[in-house]
Amino acid sequence: MTKDKIYKSLLAALFSTITIGILTLLTYKTNFGLFLIASFGSSMVLLYGYPESPFAKPKNILFGHLVTSAIGILFYNYIPLPIYILIPLAVGFGVGLMIFLDVTHPPAGGNPIIVILGSVSFEYLLSPILTGCLIIVVFGILLNKFVAQKKYP
């Protein structure tokens, strides 16, 4: 294993810990609401491990999560099908829409599952999706660009 690989993995681990730590603190130690969803953990892999990936661009992170979560909420609220049909349709539609809109962010592909299983409302798009993604993008820019000295975005 090279020094570069060790450095890259340690930096990704540290930056992921910081970013998810802030979202967790905001969620559990303030009254501001929910800032954290499971798929944000996967976003850390791209944002800090592979920031040069097109899937790690700020627009992909923000709009990928927003599009797929909105699809999950719309399907849950307006498509009267059994859950075992609703979930795969919502995931498929969400993935297809991300690709069509050129905002593909692979971790967001699971958001319709999270949304439907959680029976969330449209407020979920504001918090945790929008607020959480904005925090993630800001930290991604600050940590990648100014601390790690990487070209990001």
What does this structure look like?
α4 (83-101) runs antiparallel to α5. This protein has 153 residues and is mostly helical. 37% of the residues are buried. The protein starts with a helix and ends in a 6-residue tail after the last helix. The protein has one domain (3-147). The chain is globular and about 55 Å long. It has helices at 3-29, 38-49, 58-78, 83-101, 111-118, 126-147. It is 71% helix and 0% strand.
Q: What summary fits the major beta sheet?
A: none
H and E order? HHHHHH
- Based on helices, strands and strand pairing, what is the structural class? mainly alpha
Q: In percent terms, what proportion of residues is strand?
A: under 5%
Number of domains: 1
Proportion in helices: over 70%
Number of strands: 0
The general outline is globular
Distance between the termini: 27 Å
pLDDT < 50 stretches: none
Rg calculated over all Cα atoms: 16 Å
* Mean pLDDT level: 97
